[in-house]
Amino acid sequence: MSYLVLARKWRPRTFDDIVSQEYVTLSLKNAVYSGKIAHAFIFSGPRGVGKTSTARILAKALNCASGPTPEPCSECAFCKEIAEGKSLDVIEIDAASHTGVNDVREIIENVKYLPASGKYKIYIIDEAHMLSQSAFNALLKTLEEPPPHVLFILATTEAHKIPVTILSRCQRYDFRKVPVEKIKE
């Protein structure tokens, strides 16, 4: 019998599955639908409100075989690879353990390469506030003018620790705490 973590079993698979973040999900769906996708996002909010899940769903929406689409199919090879964390085009980085400038320089070196199979290469930097000042400085130029096939999503619980120079180059979405009533449902 295989072991499956409960959080993975119940992880949202579409924008509509994200709980209590209607403003964020509607804005992202509209952006995908209209084709007006920012090159960099900041998802900020308390722990456990769906920032990383929303980042993965956005990655699926942009790289889905039937897309870009606000409703990723979750059935095509791209969607399945992203959901399983096996996509070569969606790179998740835990900034808590990769805080240095050399980690960011590796990202900068790799952004010039086209996606392996999807339409976009998406970098999800979780706990982005943990990056060092020199790492943020190294990321700045690439964040300002990334190649057209690259997107950055910075997820953080402490947006006030992210330099203003980075914040000003990203489209920011503030996630709200999920009400207890919604959790009970």
Keyword list:
5-stranded parallel beta sheet; 185 residues; Rossmann fold; alpha/beta; 8 helices; 15% strand
Care to describe what's here?
By secondary structure, the protein is an alpha/beta fold. It has one domain (20-184): Rossmann fold. Helices cover 37% and strands 15% of the residues. The chain contains eight helices and five strands. It has helices at 6-9, 22-34, 51-63, 77-84, 101-110, 133-144, 164-167, 180-184; strands spanning 40-44, 90-94, 121-126, 150-156, 171-174. It has a five-stranded parallel β-sheet with strand order 2-3-4-1-5, covered by helices on one side. Strand 3, helix 6 and strand 4 form a beta-alpha-beta unit. Helix 3 packs antiparallel against helix 4. The radius of gyration is 16 Å and the shape is globular. The two termini are 29 Å apart. The model has no long low-confidence stretch (mean pLDDT 90).
